[in-house]
Design a protein that fits this description.
Helices cover about 25% and strands about 20% of the residues. The chain is built from eight helices and 23 strands. The chain has helices at about 20-30, 45-50, 80-95, 180-190, 215-220, 255-260, 285-305, 395-424; strands at about 10-15, 35-40, 65, 70, 100, 105-110, 115-120, 125-130, 140, 155, 170-175, 195-200, 210, 210-215, 265, 270-275, 275-280, 330, 340-345, 345-350, 365-370, 370, 375-380. Strands 1, 2, 5, 6, 7, 8 and 23 form a seven-stranded mixed sheet that branches. With about 425 residues, it is α/β, with parallel strands linked by helices. Helix 1 links the parallel strand 1 (about 10-15) and strand 2. The protein folds into two domains: about 10-140 and about 350-424, FAD/NAD(P)-binding domain (3-Layer(bba) Sandwich), CATH 3.50.50.60; about 145-345, FAD/NAD(P)-binding domain (3-Layer(bba) Sandwich).
Length: about 425
C-alpha cells in the first residue's frame, strides 16, 4: 500500500478500506483520478480480525471476483477457509496498492460550496467527490437486554468469537440463527459443547441439490443478475442471508437435525429477567419458514431443469426430521449450566459522520446503484446495492466500476464546464 503525505485537496475521497473501498481505488487509479482512502482501523480489518478460526466461505470460490483479481486456485467449486481467504484478500491489497491512510477516522463529511469538506483524525481535506464504502457492518449490535444478564456469564459478539476452547466450560447460548449464528452453533456443537440456539426468521438453503451446488444452479437461472429494480426486490436490502455452510466441502445446516443430536432450540429472544432468558413462542414458525424457503429454492431449480430438459438426479422435498414438542418461553441460565453467550445479532452501520441529506426516514442511504441524490456523493459495498452479490466478492467490483464511471464522467463534465467559462 502507498501512504503519501496528506494533501489539502483530492479529486475523490474514499471512506473505508475494505473490499468495497479498495475496489473503488482500483478503478480510480485506472482512470488516473487523484484520490485517497481513509480507513479508521486497518485495511481488510474485518477479514483479519473479526472471523472465527473455522470460518470459511459459504459461496464457492469461483464467486470470488474482485476487480482484476478472480479466484485462480485449483478448487473453484470449493470453499476457502480463513487463511486462504486472507491470502486472497492480501494479494488484492498488494495489487491495488491504494493510497490508504490507516488508523484514520473520518469525523465529518459536509458540503462546502462546490466541494466536500472531510474532517479526519489526520487533518482536513476537501474533495470534488466522495465514495462512502463503510458498509452496514461497522459496529457489533448487541441488544440492551444483555445488560441484565448475570455478571458471571461471559458475553461475546460473533466478531470476537474464535473457537470453543476460548470459552469457559459449560453450556453456550447462541442468539441469532443467521449465517454466523448457525455456523458458530455448529462449531460449538461439533466440539461437544451443550448449545442453546435462539432462532430468528433467517431462511435456509440447500448446499447441493440434484447433483450440483445450489449456487451453481442459481447462477445458471440468472438469480445473481436480478437487480433491486425488478418488482418487489427493493425490500431485499434488509433481508437476512440464507444459512448453510462451506465447511468440510460444504453441507446443509439443518437445525432440526442438530436438535435430534442434543442442541436446544428456542424462538426469538424477547428479554432477560431474574437470571432467565425469555423467548417468543415462535420456534416452530421459524423452522417452518426456513424450510419453506429451502423447498422453494429447490422447486425453482426443478422448474429450470424441466424447462431446459437438463439431465440431473431426481429431486426431493425436505420433510422435517424433528418437531418441537412444545414452545419453551424461558431458560434458567444457572440451572441449565450456561456460562457464556454468543451474540449473533449482526452489526449496525455508522453514518454519524455524514452531514449530507442522503438518507431516508430509516437512516438508510437513498441511491440508485450507489449514486445518491447529492451530486458527487456515492455509496458502495451495501448488500443488494444493485444485485445479490453487491456486498460480496462476487459483484462489489462491478458496482465499484459503475460508481467510479459515474464519478469520472461527472469530473470530466466539471472540468469541461470550467474550461468553457474560463475561455468565455
Amino acid at each position: 500500500m502507498t501512504t503519501p503525505a496528506l494533501k489539502s485537496h483530492y479529486s475523490a475521497v474514499v471512506i473505508g478500506g475494505g473490499q468495497a473501498g479498495l475496489s473503488a481505488s482500483h478503478y480510480l487509479k485506472r482512470h488516473s483520478i487523484d484520490h485517497v482512502v481513509f480507513e479508521k482501523k486497518t485495511v481488510a480489518h474485518k477479514w483479519k480480525n473479526e472471523r472465527w478460526d473455522a470460518f470459511c466461505l459459504v459461496t464457492p470460490n469461483w464467486q470470488c471476483q474482485l476487480p482484476d483479481h478472480p479466484y485462480d486456485g485449483t478448487d473453484p467449486h470449493g470453499f476457502m477457509v480463513k487463511d486462504e481467504i486472507l491470502a486472497y484478500v492480501d494479494r488484492f491489497v498488494k495489487k491495488v496498492d491504494a493510497p490508504v491512510f490507516e488508523q484514520t477516522s473520518v469525523m465529518s463529511l459536509e458540503k462546502q460550496a462546490d466541494l466536500f469538506r472531510v474532517e479526519t483524525s489526520a487533518g482536513r481535506v476537501t474533495a470534488d467527490a466522495v465514495v462512502i464504502a463503510t458498509s452496514l457492518y461497522a459496529d457489533p449490535a448487541i441488544p440492551r437486554a444483555a445488560e441484565r444478564l448475570p455478571d458471571d456469564i461471559v458475553q461475546l459478539h460473533t466478531a470476537a468469537y474464535r473457537n470453543p476452547n476460548h470459552l469457559p466450560e459449560g453450556g453456550v447460548i447462541v442468539v441469532g440463527s443467521g449465517q454466523s449464528g448457525c455456523q458458530i452453533a455448529e462449531d460449538l456443537h461439533l466440539a461437544g459443547r451443550k448449545v442453546h440456539l435462539v432462532t430468528g426468521n433467517a431462511p435456509r438453503c440447500a448446499r447441493f441439490y440434484r447433483g450440483r451446488d445450489v449456487v451453481d444452479w442459481l447462477a445458471d437461472i440468472g438469480q445473481y443478475d436480478i437487480t433491486v429494480e425488478h418488482d418487489g426486490m427493493t425490500k431485499k436490502k434488509h433481508d437476512t442471508n440464507h444459512y448453510l455452510t462451506g465447511r468440510d466441502g460444504g453441507r446443509d445446516v439443518d437445525l432440526r437435525k442438530f436438535a435430534l443430536e442434543g442442541m436446544a432450540l428456542y424462538g426469538r429472544m424477547s428479554g432477560v429477567t431474574g437470571g432467565k432468558m425469555l423467548f417468543e413462542p415462535n420456534l416452530k414458525a421459524n423452522l417452518d419458514g426456513a424450510d419453506r424457503v429451502y423447498n422453494g429454492i429447490n422447486a425453482l431449480i426443478d422448474r429450470h431443469i424441466t424447462e431446459k430438459n437438463i439431465e440431473a438426479p431426481d429431486g426431493s422435498v425436505y420433510e422435517p426430521v424433528w418437531e418441537p414438542e412444545a414452545e419453551k418461553i424461558d431458560l434458567d441460565l444457572k440451572a441449565a449450566g450456561v456460562t457464556s453467550i454468543i451474540w449473533a445479532t449482526g452489526f449496525s452501520p455508522d453514518w454519524s459522520f455524514v452531514g449530507l441529506p442522503i438518507f431516508d426516514g430509516s437512516a438508510y442511504p437513498v441511491h440508485r446503484r450507489g449514486v445518491t441524490a447529492v451530486d458527487g456523493v456515492y455509496v458502495l459495498g451495501l448488500p443488494w446495492l444493485w444485485t445479490w452479490g453487491s456486498g460480496r466478492f462476487l459483484s462489489v467490483g462491478k458496482d465499484a466500476e459503475h460508481v467510479v464511471g459515474h464519478l469520472t464522467t461527472r469530473l470530466s463534465a466539471q472540468t469541461s464546464s470550467l474550461k468553457q467559462s474560463v475561455s468565455a
